[in-house]
Specification:
Strand order of the largest sheet: 1-5-4-7-3-8
Number of strands: 8
Helix content: 25-40%
Catalytic activity: Hydrolyzes the link between N-acetylmuramoyl residues and L-amino acid residues in certain cell-wall glycopeptides
Number of helices: 9
InterPro entries: Amidase/PGRP_sf, Amidase_domain, NAMLAA_amidase_2, PGBD-like_sf, PGBDSf
Structural class: alpha/beta
Order of helices and strands: EEEHEEEHEHHEHHHHH
Largest sheet: 6 strands, mixed
Enzyme class: hydrolase
Family: Belongs to the N-acetylmuramoyl-L-alanine amidase 2 family.
Keywords: Cell wall biogenesis/degradation, Hydrolase
């Protein structure tokens, strides 16, 4: 069992898994404050939940047992899996989100998130390529955890794929070839521009314009190589 201190606040919003756990999905709460989010996630009317919530102060709230299917991802897809809820652990990270005043994630919050993620990843053998944001699995609907989330910090701890930075080479793909490569990497490309925006939000957050350019092509090519080369 975990030695990480947690506050148990059970949510009734869960059911049985249909798939083995192979993914970890990170969200932001996107509500004005932590209590609003927690109240919503435990309300039977909301029909949403998560396995854990991490507050800005670094407290961890446990809501759904990991053996159960929490209702956090909604309609989503990643690497051939459409029932992402059945295959994943969901962590809600308290942040007002883009609607209520999006801001950076405090050190105390990330400091609690990291050991929690490490335990989950070790427990279930989750690979770095399956540690994703909500926007990665639902690009047409979601923006979280957003462009301010410290993916680079997590990647240096092997808790996320690194952003490729070394020896980047533009493969000069057509836009349609880029989309096929993006689908191969794992994204749902049913809405192409949304998929490109989600990819940029994750791997090139300083310029999120939905335009496929040489840098995007080079980053995606590097990610598809057997050993992604990044900043770790």
């Amino acid at each position: 069992m975990s030695d990480i201190p947690m506050i148990d606040t059970p949510s009734p919003n869960f059911d049985d898994r249909k798939l083995p756990i192979s993914m970890l999905v990170l969200h932001y709460t996107g509500m004005p404050d932590a209590q609003s989010a927690i109240n919503w996630l435990v309300s039977p009317e909301s029909k949403v939940s998560a396995h854990y919530v991490v507050t800005e102060e670094g407290e961890i709230v446990r809501m759904v047992d990991e053996t159960k299917r929490a209702w956090h991802a909604g309609r989503s897809h990643w690497r051939g899996i459409d029932d992402v809820n059945s295959a994943s652990i969901g962590i809600e990270i308290v942040n007002p989100g883009h609607e209520w005043g999006y801001r950076g994630f405090p050190d105390a919050q990330i400091g609690s998130l990291i050991p929690l993620m490490h335990e989950i990843v070790q427990r279930h053998g989750i690979t770095r390529g399956n540690i994703v944001g909500h926007s990665d699995v639902a690009p047409a609907r979601k923006q979280d955890p957003g462009e301010l989330f410290p993916w680079g910090q997590l990647s240096r701890l092997r808790l996320a794929l690194p952003r490729p930075t070394k020896n980047l080479m533009d493969p000069l793909w057509s836009d349609s070839a880029f989309m096929l490569a993006l689908e191969r990497f794992g994204y749902d490309i049913a809405e192409p521009e949304a998929a490109v925006v989600a990819f940029q939000r994750r791997f090139r957050p300083e310029l999120i314009d939905g335009v496929i350019d040489g840098e995007c092509r080079a980053i995606l090519l590097a990610l598809l190589l057997p050993k992604p080369r990044g900043d770790d």
